[in-house]
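hi! just following up on the protien thing from before. the input was this:
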Amino acid sequence: MRVDAARGRERDRELERRLAATPIDAEIRAVFLHVIDDGLRRESRAPLSKRPRGYTSIPVRQYLADVHEAGALVGPTPDAGIARLHAATATFLLDHPGARLFVGPRDRDPLVLLGRFERSRSMLASYGDWRVGGRRGDVAITIRDEWVWIDAMWCSVIRSVFDACGVPCGEVIHESEGPFAATVRVRW
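and the predicted 3d structure came back as:
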């Protein structure tokens, strides 16, 4: 694999800017670190470190640093690696025994699951806002004050929802509104 040192340094500076912009009290559930570890295992890599229980809240800054490091291990760029690591997020989450209590077979519809993620936001993260709108076949997810990478992580997670439902995902279009806001359109 060819490494572009200049691009790597720029990506590190971008991470530093993202970490500095992220509120110190912003938290996310540790289950998303477990998603990263699952992705590393799929790539035949060892997890980065021992993780807290999935229901534990952790600083988003810790998550960002860990995801960036893991992404750099598995992809030609951290962004590409972050996308690969999140490719099975919905399947990983839905395979959890606790999830089966809340998400039955009839709920395995992309529109239903995206709506559930929207309604569960405050249980998953202490910051940001996202809204799901539209109709079957054409959905827009509006994301605001999101400190993780929308283009790399969010788009991959959205595709994983369709994979977990067994529904072919059409196009996922990322319309950036700055580093921490976007609208992601999904057409299928």
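The first helix runs from residue 5 to 21.
The CA atoms of residues 169 and 188 lie 6 Å apart.
cheers
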